Description:
Elements: H1 11-27, H2 32-45, E1 47-49, E2 55-57, E3 74-75, H3 82-91, H4 96-116, E4 124-126, E5 131-132, H5 142-153, H6 156-172, H7 184-192, H8 199-210, H9 220-233
Helix pairs in contact: 1-2, 1-3, 3-4, 3-5, 4-6, 5-6, 5-7, 7-8, 7-9
Amino acid sequence: PPGDNNANAATDGDLDAAMALVVADKVWGGYASKAKELIGKIKQFETDVCPDGMILLRPGDQWGGCSDPGNRGKTNPSYFSPGYYRVFATVDTANADFWKKLAADSYTLLAQYQKAMNGLVPEWGYNDGRMEGNYDYNACRTPWRVAIDYMWFCTPEAKTFLQNVATFIDGKGGVTKTGYANNSAFIGAFADVGVALSQAKIDSYVSAWLGNTGMDDAPYFQATLRRLYLLVAGGQFLSGL
């Protein structure tokens, strides 16, 4: 229930909080134990090892993943944070192989989803490649999370994912012309795709985003994401390494 901090965690928030603790320890010190503790809780309660050996990110600590009979194999692609996992491997060194495999398995699913959705991903997915929902206010964050992995680690799988999104964007005429909502939650994430392409491309995408008129960025969701997306676009999203 609301207010009960011992249950019903959302995995995306925990991932972002753990990453923030890693960065806080790098900048100010004193947060290493808290970061490692939360990373361990994420592993324990918000991931699953499926029968086929795939490591799957659960949407929360109470549901989803391969161990939930009511939502067996369910996951949220927009929570996948492969760049974070690689950093977590340097903090939770005893489980480094686990975090690296979670990153690899996440890209396996993202590739399946993209193939079925013209370069984009669904709101919800399953470990066997099934999908639920279209590209919407959950899924729109996925390019940003993958762009972080490329910015920090130049991961080939991240570049392939982002190139596929760019093909979709360019096929529609640019980041502001995809037909999705006119706000930074969608447009800013599309702009971040350019980090894997070229300086000219990121400049073009970001200029189109920031020069776009009529965007509805007042609500907290798109307003918060706008700031996070800008940090990636400007190369200022810290890894803590």
